[in-house]
Design brief:
Number of strands: 24
Structural class: alpha+beta
Radius of gyration: 29 Å
Number of helices: 18
Oligomer: single chain
Shape: globular
Length: 836
């Protein structure tokens, strides 16, 4: 073993067991041999056999505790170690092991005291110095932690993992030459370890080198399976997902949005327990139209799984449908879940200003202690809009608190308020199509939320969430009928909504299951007055009451078989009712398959049914993806949709990625086109995507995408429909975004996007079909400077550089807003951000 001859060690250990199967010493030797063969489960089995064969063997109990620590089972490790210490109080490494157990339970203060004791007993033990370094860094004592890492490396100079952690510590202190030297040495000492490559990826990302960061991260992913000597196979996927998620900033910086969405969905599929992976997915969906429910649900999963000391989620991330270019990313500081970012205190401030009266800002502060964290944030944004009547203002404030009650149970609470005031934000290609009505609406959301996470084991978890929303609103709507006649309606209403959910997740080495369910109830009232031309009241409606209910249950399974095959299956049941508008009970089957080839090509296919919930329900614990495809449609409540999708993604070394996704969706909208509750409108949709991203040079990144969307809302409904008109009836949109990112040096970088858009719209006008179309190009440019590892940055952007005037029809079916991809007329903005 000491000579790294794993095969010979296994042969000799197996012989020893064959000669004397009841020898605890032979079993311990076989335990070490199995660990060298990267099979920790069998290593633990042999250690347990050793303690059963000889319960008075302190070394056997210590070995068992050591493997249980590696398997992330701190309670079991503590029990084993207590028995070892009871048998031999001065057992070597005992105090250090106790320190790692305390660290695994989240008690860095206790861990620090135990590591101090271990060093007093044996100052030549590198494991104790390494453990004390980790405890100090967790407590925010980075300088002291770095000095401990230097001692650990001095005591064990051939340990590649220790040198990699020292390199990361040097990078955090901006000692880049030393960081590079230590990481290079770590890679030479252990070419198979992913750790030096991962820390190199983080260093390059902080140094404004996203191309190098992605390349290093790819190298780490290739070596991830080699960690099975230190991590069980069931946890390797968690490591892989977290590493992929921490590259979010690099994908965003280069404009590799297609590759980013693919990587984020893969990270969630590999490890649905990872808060970092869910945060990654939320970021990837931040500027994707009609994916707000999936984004908000990913945020809920992220916040329930977040550990104390990490960057909290900013308040603008909780504002659904934020109609700002770049969406919630526009005012967000960038963060990772890296160990060196887990600090007691965090503070960030960001601001934006531009033409059209655009101004905004965000503040975020948090304080963490050993077992909990509290944070508070405020966000304010306002603009006069890109046209008359498209003004928008929103304010949001929130307070979050989480507390770890035991090593397994963490509770979470949040209160937030959002005020939203807006005009007509929907873009329309023709003046008499949807979106042309002048509307002004004010809405306030008061939300209280509580949740919990119970970690039965590293592979088994319960989540719970309950929330209450109070949403009063008022509106004014002006709709011109002809040159002399105008309808004007004024109204107000309020909605109260309650939701309670539970989710169970269990992962094995090759399979995992997610199952859960929830109940949602809302009650509301509204009243309105309709005028024909100003001052002439036509109709008054007294306050009317409404209700909605949605109960659901689901189970999702995935299993890996053979070389590269993964199967997915599941089903959900939804029972809904809405004030007599509709009532349904629907089973939704889900099937999928993926095949990952050694060449880097991954093929995926899925078919699944979904049921849309009520719009007031902004987040849910239900999985937002299935086999890497979004499974949270933005449809009217009660809409039943069936989607069939196939995709192929290819990695070309570490510098290029490409993919294509073809999707067909059939949408059945209840109560559309007739007054009865049993009417159903059938709307077929197509959504196709392709991307190709390439970094030919370390300072240059290129990407090209293709998007095609077809939405058909015909006048003819099924046989139960008797009347009604849907306008526009058909929307076909093709987009080709081309982007280039260039690193200029001294922290500066620049990006250019040229986007071609063609759209054809068939609508209903003057009792006949009419066809409108537009074909235009939009050019966007930006310059950015990152300072001190991106702790400070500013960016100046010009969108629609050549001031192209165009018309574009929003294809949303619900009338809800979402981050726009482009707007008519030139706009410019300056964004600044700082974080500590």
């Amino acid at each position: 073993m000491a000579r790294n001859q794993a095969a010979e060690a296994m042969e000799y250990a197996s012989r020893a067991v064959a000669l004397d199967a009841k020898s605890s010493t032979a079993r311990l030797a076989l335990s070490y041999a199995w660990q060298s063969q990267r099979d920790l489960s069998k290593a633990l089995t042999e250690a347990r056999l050793a303690t059963e064969l000889n319960p008075s063997d302190a070394l056997a109990w210590a070995r068992r505790a050591e493997i249980e620590v590696v398997m992330s089972a701190p309670d079991e490790a503590q029990a084993s170690l207590d028995k070892a210490i009871a048998l031999e109080p001065d057992l070597p490494r005992a105090q250090a092991l106790k320190g790692f157990i305390a660290l695994a339970k989240g008690d860095a203060d206790a861990a620090l005291a135990l590591f101090n004791t271990a060093i007093e007993h044996n100052a030549a033990e590198p494991l104790a110095w390494y453990g004390r370094a980790m405890a100090r860094i967790r407590l925010g004592q980075n300088d002291d932690g770095r000095r401990d890492l230097e001692v650990a490396v001095t005591l064990d100079p051939g340990n590649a993992e220790l040198r990699a952690y020292l390199a990361r510590s040097y990078a955090d202190a901006d000692r880049m030459d030393e960081a590079v030297a230590q990481n290079d040495l770590a890679r030479r000492l252990d070419p198979l370890s992913p750790t030096p490559w991962y820390f190199e990826a983080l260093r390059r990302q902080d140094a404004n080198d996203p191309v190098g960061a992605i390349q290093a991260a790819e190298e780490a992913q290739r070596r991830n399976g080699n960690r099975t000597v230190l991590r069980p196979a069931s946890l390797i996927g968690q490591d892989s997902a977290t590493r992929e998620a921490n590259m979010s900033r690099s994908y965003e910086m280069m404009g590799w949005y297609g590759a980013m969405q693919r990587a984020a969905a893969d990270a969630v599929t590999r490890d649905p327990q990872s808060g970092a992976a869910h945060h990654f997915l939320a970021s990837a969906l931040a500027n994707e139209g009609q994916s707000e429910f999936a984004r908000m649900s990913s945020l809920l999963q992220a916040q329930l799984r977040q550990r104390p000391g990490q960057w909290p989620l900013p308040p603008q991330y909780y504002v659904p449908g934020l109609p700002i270019l770049d969406g919630p990313r526009a005012l967000s500081t960038e963060e990772t879940s890296d160990l060196f970012e887990r600090q007691p205190n965090h503070f960030s401030v960001s601001a934006i200003g531009g033409n059209n009266g655009t101004i905004g800002g965000s503040l975020l502060a948090s304080h963490a202690w050993q077992t909990g964290q509290i944070s508070a944030g405020y966000f304010d944004y306002r603009t006069d809009g890109w046209r008359e009547g498209s003004d928008f203002r929103t304010r949001a404030a929130q307070i979050d608190i989480q507390q770890q009650l035991t090593s397994k149970l963490t509770i979470y609470g949040q209160i937030r308020q959002q005020e939203r005031s807006s005009g007509d934000l929907i873009q329309a290609l023709a003046p008499n199509l949807a979106g042309s009505t002048q509307t002004h609406r004010n809405t306030t959301y008061d939300v209280g939320q509580a949740g919990f996470r119970y970690d039965v084991s590293p592979n088994e978890q319960w989540l719970g969430n309950a929330a209450f929303t109070h949403a009063p609103s008022d509106f004014i709507k002006v709709q011109p009928i002809n040159k002399v006649t105008t309808f004007q309606s004024e109204g107000e209403g309020r909605t109260n909504a309650r939701v309670a959910e539970l989710q169970y997740l269990h992962a094995w080495e090759t399979q995992s299951v997610q199952a859960g369910g929830g109940t949602y109830n809302e009650t509301g009232s509204q009243g309105y007055v309709i005028y024909i031309n100003p001052g002439h009241r036509l109709l008054t409606s007294s306050s009317s009451m409404g209700f909605g209910r949605h109960d659901n249950a689901y189970a999702i399974w995935q299993g890996r078989y053979g070389d590269g095959w993964t199967l997915f299956g599941g089903a959900s049941y939804d029972q809904m009712e809405s004030s007599g508008n509709f009532r349904l009970g629907k089973w939704s089957p889900k099937l999928g398959v993926s095949y990952a080839m050694p060449s880097g090509l991954t093929l995926r296919a899925a078919g699944y049914r979904s049921v849309a919930s009520f719009s007031t329900l902004q987040q849910s614990l239900r999985p937002a993806t299935f086999n890497g495809f979004t499974d949270a449609p933005e449809d009217s409540s009660g809409t039943v949709s069936t989607r069939y999708v196939i995709a192929a993604d290819q990695r070309f070394g570490t510098t290029a990625k490409a993919g294509v996704e073809l999707s067909a969706r059939s949408v059945h909208v209840p109560g559309m086109g007739c007054p009865g509750a049993e009417c159903t409108a059938y709307w077929p949709e197509r959504a196709h995507r392709a991307y190709a991203s390439w970094a030919p040079l370390e300072w240059l990144a290129l990407t090209a995408e293709w998007r095609y969307d077809s939405v058909h809302r015909p006048l003819a409904f099924d046989e139960k429909a008797t009347n009604g008109v849907a306008t526009p009836m058909r929307i076909r949109t093709q987009q080709i975004p081309l982007r280039a990112w260039v690193r200029l040096g001294a922290g500066f970088s620049s990006s250019v996007e040229v986007r071609q858009v063609r759209q054809d719209v068939l609508g209903w006008s003057n009792y006949s079909n009419s066809l409108w179309s537009d074909n235009f190009w939009v050019t966007n440019v930006s310059v950015r400077q990152s300072i001190d590892g991106d702790r400070y940055w500013w960016e100046f952007a010009i969108n629609n550089l050549f001031d192209r005037d165009f018309q574009f029809q929003d294809s949303t079916a619900t009338g809800s807003t979402h981050p726009p991809e482009f707007l008519p007329g030139r706009s410019y903005s300056l964004r600044v951000s700082a974080r500590w």
